[in-house]
Amino acid sequence: MDTSQYLELFIDETKEHLQALNEHILVLEKDPENEDTINEIFRAAHTLKGMSGTMGFTRMQRLTHDLENAFTEIRNGNMKANSKLVDIMFRGLDALEQYLDVISSTGEEGTEDNEDIINDINNIIKEQTGGGADDASTGAKTETKSEDKKTETSVSDLDKYAKIEVNESDILAIEAAKQDGHKIYGVTVYLQESCILKAARAFLVFKNLETKGELIKSVPTIEEIEDEEFDFDFSWIIASKSTAEEIEKAGMSVSEVAQVRVGEFNYSTPAEEEVKEEKPADKSQKEEKSGGEAAPKKTSHGSKGKVASRSVRVDIDKLDVLMNLVSELIIAKNGLISVRGTEEMAAFEGNSVFNENLEYLERITTNLHESVMKVRMVPIETVVNRFPRMIRDLNRKLDKKMELYMSGEDTELDRTVIDELGDPLMHLLRNSADHGLESNEERVKLGKPEVGSIYLDAYQEGNNVTIEVRDDGGGIDIEKIKKKALEKGTITEQQAETMTEKDYIDLLFKPSFSTADKVSDISGRGVGLDVVKTKIEALGGSIDAKTVKGEGSTFTIQLPLTLAIIQALMIVVANEKYAIPLGNIDTIENISPDDIKLVQSKEVINLRGSVIPVVRMREVLCVDEEAEEQEEFIVVVVKKGDQRLGLITDGLIGQQETVIKSMGHYITCEKLFSGATILGDGEVALILDTNTMM
Description:
Blueprint: H1 7-30, H2 35-55, H3 58-75, H4 83-106, H5 115-129, H6 133-154, H7 168-179, E1 183-191, H8 198-210, E2 213-219, H9 222-226, E3 233-240, H10 244-252, E4 257-264, H11 270-275, H12 280-291, H13 316-338, H14 352-376, E5 377-379, H15 381-384, H16 387-398, E6 402-407, E7 412-414, H17 415-436, H18 440-445, E8 452-461, E9 464-471, H19 478-488, H20 493-498, H21 501-507, H22 528-538, E10 542-548, E11 552-560, E12 565-573, E13 576-581, E14 585-591, E15 596-599, E16 602-607, E17 610-616, H23 617-620, E18 633-640, E19 643-649, E20 651-659, E21 673-678, E22 684-688, H24 690-693
Parallel strand pairs: 6-8, 13-22, 17-19
Antiparallel strand pairs: 1-3, 1-4, 2-3, 5-7, 8-9, 9-11, 10-11, 12-13, 12-20, 14-18, 15-16, 16-17, 18-19, 21-22
Helix pairs in contact: 1-2, 1-4, 2-3, 2-8, 3-4, 3-5, 4-5, 8-10, 13-14, 16-17, 17-22, 19-21
């Protein structure tokens, strides 16, 4: 059977199951008696084994099968999750992730067998249980065989499907299918007793029979079959135009299927049932109905009780196309608004219907944009949920005791931002673990708790999301930075005398700058914080660091909610129009030329007690023509963390919803612009990157 069509779904779901296993095993390590966690681990491993077996990835299936054996022994109380076992489990999960990486890039699982991990799993099972995984599974098989024999002897010549109970909705579906010319068949499938992956085989049989007709009812339910809550047989009612022989052949084409029995399915109507002899069980059920509410019954596939899934997986490329179309619609809307007041529109000025429809179009496009944005939003949890495992591993590597505390995992960001966020956060956390936290002995000497704390907090502020990574370590050693910077020639002795604490902290974000005394596989190469700054600013965000000696450090990242459509302030410099993202603006002020003072040959203004440097946008943008003398200047004060900068402009146009268009690689000048936008009249306006300006 061709399973390539399910490959993408397999990859997505396997990632989810592996992440769930990582999280649950971390819980299990701290709380080995937690039954809910043990059951969740078993279910995830069991599903993973079935999925890999169905897809034909035998090496992955074998490793997952052996991991499942260990989880089974823990579930049965024969083993305890000690640190040795947990380490082997994590090695197994890492190996499964490597299989998945190879599958994602090649479609095949590769040739690595991971025999060392499989041997270690089986050895620890033998150590703790006094036997092997094989003994346990043999016992299980023997028990199943004896159970199965009882089942077979209790089944008369009648097929199991003859005993399937149908409800009103099933009968309606059967009658509708008959009217469409379908025959109604009862199908019972018997699997070989040696079959390991019963759910996987049932899935393949289902996929084959699905091509022959439509499933009306399943006993046991589809959910119970997926969870392998059945013996070695299951029954279905199917509506089909095929013959019984064709259906039987389709079922028998799947390996490990022992027998398929197919016959026409007939049911008795409720009226016919009433005249039958009443059994004691039937009587008690009637009494239940008359005396009170009957006990709830499990609902089968297709019955009214089943709640349908209300989510759907959508490829991000399709959402990108949708976002582009919304962007074009906004540009068209801006075009209509911009022609208001022109001669061409004079005839429409008094037309209330036209104005109402234009306002309605504005509301609809804004609502449409917000709806598409919500679809693209993904919780930050999808990035941060892998970090507890990383901190656990660093705990071992660095021989430091540390705990990671996270909050705000449900904070949402645009998918394009989320995809790029993993590496910067990983670098910051590793930095806190390696440089921030002191050694266990040092912490005890200082009177601190032996276990260091690292915090990862996320929260939304207006149109931005703020992410903080902080620790309770020793803080950033400014003197050490100064010494290293002078050694490397990054700064001169003269510069060092005038530099503030913030200036020294900013040196940490320079390429190839590190305060580590030795290079390790964790840090010391000077690429971490440089990569973080570059990545965050490429996403239109900013990063800032604060420190208190002896108490710890805080790195604060600010990111825009979206990179596609933003609210911007349109300004004029000479005859050109430019856009400044509204999220970067602190305030807009009118000042007189006399308010501008010189400090160290640089222009500044004193704004309500704060000294703010200012730049003339005509000079920044190299405008040749001289500006006319003005009685007042318009200054747009932009912000980046605690920093402020005043931009002296020639005029303001107003706020506008703008669509960011990438300029590609054609413009190679200094990164003064983060993109461009198309205005309503078709003119192009560049979007100023105020972070770079600072």
